[in-house]
Amino acid sequence: NAAQTSVSSYTAYTNAITQIDNVVGDSTAGLTPSLASFFSDLQNLTADPSDASSRQAALSGAQTLSASFQSLAATMTSSADSVNSQITSSIQSANSYATQLAALNASIVSAQSTTGQPANELLDQRDQLVASLGNVMQVSTVEQSNGSLDVFVANGQPLVMGTSVSTLVATPSTSNPNNLEVGIESSSGGSTITLPDSSITGGTLG
């Protein structure tokens, strides 16, 4: 489960960072050649300020560099929008898995108290749900004596406690409302606790 959580995290990171790297780091079409060409044109202009062709080359280089920065800005905005969409989608998936886990907890406790035997099929289903949740974000689990499984997110906030489920929510960042952060609402309601970015590790959400 831990390995799969890491794989999901690195895959999501790679997909996001590749978009930016293609614009910033591409040696032929990225920002670097535009910068190099612009400063080369400026150097030529400094050597001969009265030369009309040098002035035109410097202007053209400035326009090309400006276009490159605009392209970079558009890519960054698109990337940020994509990350926000992925955060929202990941939260929806995590909440769905958490709800299913709570329902399975109830079924497992009921089945094992009735038969006195492990409810192996239900336990397998629950293990699979924990693995699926781990693809979204890193979690820890604690099995209780009655057979139920409590699930906690990385900073220790409870997500599933027996049959009670807390809800993850996407909230605007206080530092930049255009970016989404992850919050959690307890099963009893009340205020939303914003989870620090550093506490959400692993999985696509991390």
**Mean pLDDT across all residues, rounded?**
91
Biggest sheet record: 4 strands, antiparallel
Count the E strands. 7
Low-confidence stretches: none
Short overview:
With 206 residues, the protein is of the alpha+beta class. The protein is built from four helices and seven strands.
Blueprint (SSEs and pairs):
Elements: H1 2-24, H2 31-47, H3 52-115, H4 120-136, E1 139-143, E2 149-153, E3 158-161, E4 164-165, E5 167-172, E6 180-185, E7 193-194
Antiparallel strand pairs: 1-2, 2-3, 3-4, 5-6, 6-7
Helix pairs in contact: 1-3, 1-4, 2-3, 3-4
Could you name the key traits of this structure?
206 residues; four-stranded antiparallel β-sheet; alpha+beta; elongated; single chain; 4 helices
